[in-house]
Specification:
The complex is a heterodimer of chains A (about 80) and B (about 400). Chain A is mostly helical and about 80 residues long. Chain A is built from 3 helices and no strands. The longest helix of chain A has 15 residues. The chains are: A mainly alpha (about 80), B alpha/beta (about 400).
Chain lengths: ~80, ~400
């Protein structure tokens, strides 16, 4: 079980080493596009985050994820952190 | 933004590619001369990107069978397998495929794409899970979307990632269909099937294996990678295509599960399309006999594949991880990959240009597929053509 803030922190920890200098992981940042990651790299990023939380996000749920905040909310819900 | 504006970026890419010469995507073969030769852009060209692994497209027995069927049964069935489109030949081919694989059931689809998509979409439903290798073919991804099942992707050729994700499912693992491929079509790498079947059995999952690029290529009898690795009886469903080793067009699924017969009434890709033409069925049946009767074709294919793989490796190119009939040459920059593709065509060699997102990484590929029908001289010409690209693809950087 992880809260929204914990999920956000995990996203930042996993993503930041992959990003170019100066790119920050703000809640409103659009995944891929604003973070400078290809669709493939974004999927790899998601897989690494899944491992941190020991969950698997269904691919079906990803089209609704546009921003870092969307991903954090999905992770929170999938890890049982949201009521 | 209008309905069609979404095509603007693709149109710009297409125009930019056309400005450099023949369009790499959908190149026209003006005249096909043999399984390995054609006239492309006015030049005799070695075809090294056709997936014609056993070189059977001009085989006299296959052509004669197709001609007889064309004369006696006409140009098409004009109907679905479910309606009027099942002739004696369709049923006979299904029996022959079942016998070839040693399975109780087989069904024939109109294309390989619809076979894979149709099987995945029919086997899994809204309460089920599809666990697919991340590098699976588009037909598998499309089947997943149509199924309504939960879709989970495991890291490519990574059994431990599969195990981890099946464990996370808990009891739902027993309602999971694991989907992977034998030989992966872009890099030519092979699935670690022994480990994958061990894991899916441990969790009580079912498995579908796409042998589109491995049927006729692997195994003592040419049944594919599952045969070569000794795990055939642990794979629930095997799907394949007629458009590679069998030299025609169409697809199939074989299984011991009696439910495969019921899939005929559940798979929309089987029901709502016209069946394969009689001539296609006839040439496919002849080709299937040849796969069984001529193991020397497989030996020749592997000799040719090894010759190309070693030749390109010795020339310093960075290649896909395993030698085999798909030989992928990495090129980092799209512009250099496109220029290289044109230079190869000018040198009389056709290969496939693959650029992201169609590649399984952020890099480009010059993808070769080898045939048993290639001569050693043709393969040496392909190697020499690649070697002339050295300054473009940066061999020195990667060797």
């Amino acid at each position: 079980m992880a809260s929204y803030d914990e999920c956000l922190q995990i996203i930042r920890e996993v993503a930041e080493p992959l990003l170019e200098a100066g790119v920050t992981v703000s809640e409103g940042a659009v995944l891929g596009q604003e973070l400078g990651l290809s669709s493939l790299r974004t999927l790899e990023l998601v897989a690494d985050i899944e491992d941190r939380l020991d969950i698997s996000l269904p691919l079906n749920s990803l089209p609704a994820v546009r921003t870092v905040a969307d991903l954090a909310r999905l992770l929170e819900a999938s890890s049982g952190g949201a009521s | 933004m209008g309905l069609l504006d979404k095509f603007d970026d693709l149109a710009a890419t297409r125009e930019a590619l056309l400005a450099q010469g023949p369009l790499p995507f959908g190149v026209v073969t003006d005249k096909i001369l043999s399984p390995t030769l054609g006239i492309v852009h006015g030049r005799e060209t070695i075809l090294a990107g056709t997936n014609n692994y056993l070189g059977l497209t001009f085989e006299p027995e296959c052509i004669a069978a197709a001609e007889r069927a064309l004369e006696s049964e006409g140009t098409g069935t004009t109907g679905s397998r479910m309606a009027n489109g099942t002739y004696g030949g369709h049923q006979a081919l299904e029996k022959e495929l079942a016998a070839f694989y040693g399975r109780r059931h087989a069904i024939v689809f109109t294309t390989g794409f619809t076979a894979t998509m149709g099987m995945v979409a029919a086997l899994a439903g809204p309460d089920d899970v599809l666990m697919i290798d991340g590098d699976c073919h588009a037909s598998i991804y499309d089947g997943c979307r149509l199924s309504g099942a939960e879709i989970i992707r495991f890291r490519h050729n990574n059994p431990e990632d599969l195990r981890k994700r099946l464990r996370r499912l808990g009891e739902r693992a027993s309602r999971t269909l694991v989907v992977t491929e034998g030989l992966f079509s872009m890099l030519g790498d092979q699935a670690p099937l022994e480990e994958i079947v061990e894991i899916k059995d441990e969790f009580g999952a079912c498995m579908l294996l796409d042998e589109a690029h491995s049927m006729g290529v692997f195994g003592e009898h040419g049944r594919g990678l599952a045969e070569a690795r000794g795990v055939e009886d642990r794979v629930d469903f095997i799907v394949g295509t007629f458009s590679k080793s069998l030299g025609s067009v169409g697809g199939f699924c074989v299984s011991n599960h009696p439910e495969l017969e019921t899939v005929r009434m559940a798979s929309r890709a089987y029901i709502f399309t016209a069946s394969p033409t009689p001539s296609v069925i006839a040439s496919t049946r002849a080709a299937l006999r040849l796969v069984a009767e001529r193991p020397q074709l497989r030996r020749q294919l592997w000799e040719n594949s090894t010759r190309l793989y070693q030749g390109l490796a010795e020339a310093g190119f960075e290649l896909g991880p395993q030698a085999g009939p798909v030989v992928a040459v990495y090129v980092d920059e799209p512009a250099r990959a496109i220029e290289s593709w044109h230079r190869l065509l000018e040198a009389g060699v056709y290969v496939n240009l693959v650029i992201p997102p169609a590649t399984p990484s952020t890099r480009c590929l010059l993808r070769c597929s080898i045939s048993a029908a290639h001569t050693p001289e043709q393969i040496d010409t392909i190697i020499a053509a690649f070697a002339s690209l050295e300054s473009i693809v940066g061999v020195a950087d990667t060797a």
